[in-house]
Specification:
The model has no long low-confidence stretch (mean pLDDT about 90). The protein has three helices and no strands. Helix 1 crosses helix 2.
Length: about 60
């Protein structure tokens, strides 16, 4: 979920940065890894089909 949240926010071209809270130093590395994680395209499609994401919202990787 962390990966999807970070990647969704950054998919919008109007967003230039996302600053998640880091309660301890290890969280910074977790966040960096989450940005590299592959979120399946089917996940994004299912969100759209369930109308949980606006049809006009940009999605990661052009899904």
């Amino acid at each position: 979920m962390k990966a999807a949240g970070l990647q969704f926010a950054l998919a919008n071209p109007a967003v230039v940065a996302v600053i998640p809270g880091a309660s301890k130093p290890g969280r910074v590395e977790e966040d960096r890894a989450a940005l590299q994680e592959t979120v399946p395209k089917a996940f994004w499609r299912e969100l759209r089909e369930a109308r949980l994401v606006d049809p006009a919202a940009p999605l990661p990787f052009g899904v």
